[in-house]
Amino acid sequence: MTQDQGNTTNTEASLGGASVEVVDVNAVNTKGIRALYKKRTKIHPRRSSGFFRSLKWWIMRLTLGIYYITPWLRWDRGPGAPDQAVLIDFPGQRFYFFFIEIWPQEVYYIAGLLILAGVALFLVTSLFGRAWCGYACPQTVWTDMFLVVERLVEGDRAQRIRLDKAPMSLSKATKRVTKIALWLGISVATGGAWVFYFADAPTLAIQLVTFDAPQIAYLTIAILTFMTFFFGGIMREQVCIYMCPWPRIQAAMMDEESLTVTYHGSRGEPRAPHRKGDTWEDRGDCVDCKHCVVVCPTGIDIRNGQQLECITCALCIDACDSIMQKVGRPRGLIDYDSVANEIRKSEGLTSSIKWFRARTVLYTLMALTVCAVMLTALLSRSDMDISVLHDRNPLFTALSNGDIRNGYTIKILNKTRSPRTMLLTLEGFDKADLKVVGAASDDPDQPAYLTVKPDQQQTYRILVSVEANELTSDSTSIRFVLEDINSNSKVHQRSIYRGP
Amino acid sequence: MADKPTIDDLTGVETTGHDWDGIRELNSPLPVWWLWILYATIIWSIGYWVAYPAWPLVSDYTKGVLGYSSRTEVINDMAEAKQRQAAQLQKLETVSLEEIRTDSDLLSFALAGGRSAYNVNCSQCHGSGAQGFAGYPNLNDDEWLWGGTLEQINFTITHGIRNNIDEDSRVSDMPAFLTDEVLTKEQISEVAGYVLSLSGKTEGATDGGKEIFEENCVACHGDDGVGNDELGAPALNNNIWLYGGDKDTVTDIISRSRGGVMPAWGKILPETTVKALTVYIHSLGGGT
Fold first, then answer.
1. Does the distance separating the beta carbons of A397 and B107 come in below 8 Å?
2. What is the DSSP letter of B181?
3. Which member of A191, A274, A358, A373 has the greatest number of CB atoms within 10 A?
4. What is the 3-state secondary structure (H, E, C) of chain A?
5. Do the domain assignments include residue A316?
C-alpha cells in the first residue's frame, strides 16, 4: 500500500513557460494489493478554480435557492385552503403544487414524475456520463459546502494536512470546534428547510422557535441534521464509492460515445516532468504535476482511465487546464470526451461527438412520451370523479314482483371548495329505478340528486331495479353518468348489471 | 481449489486464490468502517434484547425493561377508537331510527358499525351478503315476514323470533295439517297446487284446492295469499320462497309445518348496536 497523501513535499521547479509546482502524491484510490479490510485514508482536496468550478458554484446557488425559497412562496387558493405554493399535507391527504392539487387517488402523477425523473437521468447519463453525481447530487453539493467551511477555518490542503498531524493544541481545538459548529449550523438549516414542505412555513417557523412545533418536526430536523453532518462532513466520498448504487447502475446507461471526464493518454503520454526550455518533441503533454490528483474529492488519478470512484466533478479539468496554460500547451489534456474519441485520436483519426445514437434518441422519445401522457392526464383532469363498485354478494336480488335489483357502492369526489349537487343517471336500460339509500324520499321516480361536501369524497349506496325482461343475459353492460347540475360538467363510469 | 493469492493482471487487484474452472475471485477489500457497522448492529441487538421482549423461555419469555407489549398497544388503540366514537355513539342512542337514516354522517357511521355487527352475529345464518339460505330469509329482497320498516326490523332484531328467552319474541305457529290430522294427503296435494298457482305456477290448480285454501289458510296468509306481516305469514303470491317453491317442498311444509328461530339480540347486544344493525339491514334493499 502506497498511500501517502500525507507526505506531501512540494517542489517548486521551473517548468515550461512558467513555474509549476509539482506535488509528490499518490492517489488514495489506486489499484494494487489491498487488505481484506481497507483502512480509510483521509482525502484533502485542494481548492481549484476555473470554468467548471464556477459552473458548479452557480448550479449550487440555483438548486439550494430553490430548496430554501420554495416553501415560502405563497399561492392563493381561496378561503379555507392552504396558501402555500408547494405543500405536502399528510393529515389533509393533499399535495399542493401551485395550481395543481393532488389527491391520494391520483398518486400516479407522482409515479409519472418519478418515471420522468428516471428517464431524464438515463438521458443525461448517456449524453454526459455521471453529470448528476458531479453537479446536482446533494451528496456532492453538501460536501462542497462543507469543504468551503473546512477551507475557511483550517486553510487549504497543505495546512489541513499539517493540522491533522499537529498535536492537539488550543488553536487546533479552536479550529476543530469552529468547523464543527459551522457544519452543524448548515446541517440544522438543511433539515430545518425540509420540514417547511410539510406544514405552513411561517406558522411552523414560529412554532419551531417557541418550542410549540409537533414532535415529528423536531425529530425530522434532528435526523436530517445528523445525516447531513455525517454524510457531508465525515463520510463524503465513502458514500459515493461504497454506499451509493448509482455508480454500479450508470454503466448500463453509458456507452463508448458518452461524454465523460477523460484523460487524453494519446496526447499526454509519455508523461514526464518538464523544465523550462525543454523540448516538447518525443514526449507527452502531461508534466506529471499531479494537480489533477490533489483536487480530486474522491482521491483518484484520472490518468488511470475511467473509474467507479469518478463522480465527474470536472475539477481535474480545471486543474489541468491551468497548468497547460502555464506551460504554454493547449487546454483540454483532461476534458469531457468519449472513450471512442480517445481511441480515434490514438489512431490518428478525427474525433467527433455523436449526439444522436439509438440510446439517446430512445431515452428522449421515452421522456417525451411520459411528458405527453402526464400533460394530457393533467389537462383532462376533472374537478369531480366517480367510482362504482358493483355488489358481489349477492350479485343480484329477485324482488317479489319479479324485478331484478342490483346494488352499487358509488364514491363521488368533489375536488372544488364548494358543496355541489350532482344528478346520477344510468344508461343501458329503457327504464330503471334508481334508489339512493338514505334519501329522504322513497319515491323511485324522484331523480337521484347527490350532494357532496366541499373538498371531500362521499360514498353512496345505490339500488337499481329493472324489469326482468330488460335483461337479455346474466350480465349487461351499463354506464353511470354523474352531472353537476350547476356547471353541467359530466363524468361517467362503466359497470355491469347482473341477473339470473 | 485453493491456490496462492495472486495479482490479477487486468485490474491489478489481489485474488482470493479460489479458482473454479479458471474463474478467479477478486479480493476487493471492504472499507473497515463497514465492519464497524456490523459490530454496531450486534451491540444494538444486545441493547434491544434488554429493552424489548426478545427471548422465548420454557413457559414465558423475556419481557424487556421497557415493559413494551404489542397487546397493550392494541388495547390503547381500541380505547382511543372508542373515545373517538363516543360522540356519535351517544347521538346514535338518542335520535330516532328515521333520523339516523336521513343524516348522511350518522348513516355512514351506523352502516359501518351495523355491517361489522352483522358479520359477527348474523352472517352465520343469513349469509355474509345477507342473501339468506333455505329457511333463513334473504334480507336484500322486499318481502318481509315480520315487516320491513325501520321499527319492525328493530323489533324483530331486539326480541327475536320463536325463542323462549324474550317474552315479546315474535311468535306464529302454522298448523301441521297432516300431522295434526286436519287435512288428508290428497287435500294437501290439492291445496299445494292452488298455492303454487297464486304466483303463476298454474300446474295442478283445482277448485277444490281453492276451497280448502279459503277454509284453512286465508285467516293468516290473506285473500289470494298476499301474506300478513303482523302474523309472520309469508306472501304466497310471488316468487320469493323461504324454503323453496317446488310442489314437494310446499306439500311438506303444509303437512308438517316449519318455522325458524332467531335469538333476541336485545338481550345480547347493546341498544346502539341493535340500532346500527337495524339501519344496516334496512339499507340492504328491503326497507319497506
1. no
2. T
3. A274
4. CCCCCCCCCEEEEEECCEEEEEECCCCCCCCCCCCCEECCCCCCCCCCCCHHHHHHHHHHHHHHHHHHHHHHCECCCCCCCCCECEEEECCCCEEEECCEEECHHHCHHHHHHHHHHHHHHHHHHHHHCCHHHHHHCHHHHHHHHHHHHHHHHHCCHHHHHHHHHCCCCHHHHHHHHHHHHHHHHHHHHHHHHHHHHHCCHHHHHHHHHCCCCCHHHHHHHHHHHHHHHHHHHHHCHHHHHHHCCHHHHHCCCCCCCCCEEEECHHHHCCCCCCCCCCCCCCCCCCCCCCHHHHCCCCCCCHHHCCCCCCCCCCHHHHHHHHHHHHHCCCCCCEEEECHHHHHHHHCCCCCCCCCCCHHHHHHHHHHHHHHHHHHHHHHCCCCEEEEEEECCCCCCEECCCCCEEEEEEEEEEECCCCCEEEEEEEECCCCCEEEECCCCCCCCCCCEEEEECCCEEEEEEEEEEECHHHCCCCEEEEEEEEEECCCCCEEEEEEEEECC
5. no
CA dist A188 and A225 (Å) reads 5
pLDDT of the residue at B10: 75
B36-53 pLDDT, tens digit per residue, is 999 999 999 999 999 999
Report the CATH number that the domain containing residue A489 is assigned in CATH. Answer: 2.60.40.10
For the segment A313-318, the average pLDDT, to the nearest whole number, is 94
Which DSSP state fits B165?
S
Report how many domains make up chain A: 1
Q: Answer yes or no: is A11 within a domain.
A: no
The CATH 1.10.760.10 domain(s) of chain B lie at 72-169+262-283, 185-256
Q: What is the pLDDT of residues A150-207, one digit of tens each?
A: 999 999 999 999 999 999 999 999 999 999 999 999 999 998 899 999 999 999 999 9
ipTM of the shown complex: 0.78
Closest Cβ opposite residue B31 in set A242, A394, A442: A242
Signed CA dihedral, A321, A327, A330, A334: sign only: negative
Mutate one of B122, B142, B238, B288 to test the A interface: name it (highest A CB count within 10 A). B142
Does residue A411 belong to any structural domain of this protein?
yes
Contacts of A78 (CB under 8 A, 6+ apart): A417
Q: Which chain A positions have a beta carbon within 8 Å of B225's beta carbon?
A: none
pLDDT at A439: 77
| CATH superfamily to which B72-169+262-283 belongs | Cytochrome c-like domain (1.10.760.10)
Q: Are residues A10 and A158 in contact, defined by beta-carbon separation less than 8 angstroms?
A: yes
Q: Which of A1, A28, A30, A36 to mutate to test the interface with B (most CBs of B within 10 A)?
A: A36
B22 at the A interface (CB within 8 A)? no
CATH class of B185-256: mainly alpha
- Residue A462: pLDDT above 80? yes
Query: Is residue A438 situated within a structural domain?
Result: yes
Please judge whether B30 and A36 are an interchain contact, meaning their C-beta atoms are less than 8 angstroms apart. yes
Question: What separation in angstroms does the CA of A233 have from each of A157, A225, A227, A422?
Answer: 16, 11, 10, 59
Range of the domain at A409: 384-498
Quote the pTM value.
Answer: 0.75
B95-126 b/e with 16+ CB inside 10 Å = b? Answer: eebeebbeebebbbbbbebbbebbeebbeeeb
Closest partner CB to B107 (pick from A40, A238, A438): A438
Instruction: Report residue A485: phi and psi, to 5°.
Output: -75, -15
Name the DSSP class of B203: T
- Give the tens place of pLDDT for each residue, A228-283: 999 999 999 999 998 999 888 888 888 889 999 999 988 888 898 888 888 888 88
Average per-residue pLDDT in chain B?
A: 89
Burial grade of A61 (CB within 10 A; 0-12, 13-18, 19 or more): exposed
